[in-house]
Design a protein that fits this description.
Length: 187
């Protein structure tokens, strides 16, 4: 029974990954096109997902959980704040780049999705408090505004013209922009 379960999970993941690739290129793609890209029969996709909306909801939920894992795996209070900021940023960028279609969808208002985003926001707020306390941010920095700008930078980095650029390189560029901006006095 355990082998059957892992085969089912592997099939579902294959379908979700194929759906991400296909829908990223063509948001109007059919279930049949997704099945073909996944290398499975159309009936297999329909057996796992009752509708296209159910498939997209599953993709969004799956990507949301990967997002939560990305934040949690990098977040620490023992590493220097700059290291944590870079690692969290790189991890989140990887998810947002690889799961761009799913991450761009409005997640369901379910309690689990809300919990994931609430925890991520808490981690982000703590990360910026630590960065301020370490002198990386000005002592008078508005941390709510800083977080909102950080989120916007992540969105732009993940969806911008730097497609194909390594997430670590993008994270370095993003963190440098956040901490130093573009003004000459910041160098």
């Amino acid at each position: 029974m355990n082998k059957l379960r892992s085969d089912t999970e592997r099939t579902v993941r294959t379908i979700l990954e194929a759906a991400e690739r296909v829908l990223s290129r063509n948001p109007a793609a059919s279930m049949e096109q997704i099945a073909e890209a996944a290398g499975v029969a159309r009936t297999t996709v329909h057996r796992r997902f009752t509708s296209r909306d159910a498939l997209v909801d599953a993709m969004t939920a799956w990507a949301t959980h990967r997002f939560a894992e990305a934040v949690e795996s990098a977040y620490t209070t023992t590493a220097p704040p700059l290291v944590t900021l870079h690692q969290v940023t790189a991890n989140v960028l990887r998810i947002k780049i690889n799961w761009g279609y799913a991450m761009s969808r409005t997640p369901s208002a379910g309690p689990e999705v809300a919990r994931v985003y609430a925890v991520a926001r808490e981690r982000c707020d703590e990360m910026f408090r630590r960065a301020r306390d370490a002198g990386l941010l000005r002592a008078d920095a508005d941390l709510d505004w800083t977080r909102r700008v950080y989120y916007a930078l992540i969105h732009e980095a993940a969806t911008g013209p730097d497609e194909g650029q390594d997430a670590d390189a993008l994270a370095t560029r993003l963190v440098d922009t956040l901490l130093h901006g573009f003004g000459e006095h910041n160098r």
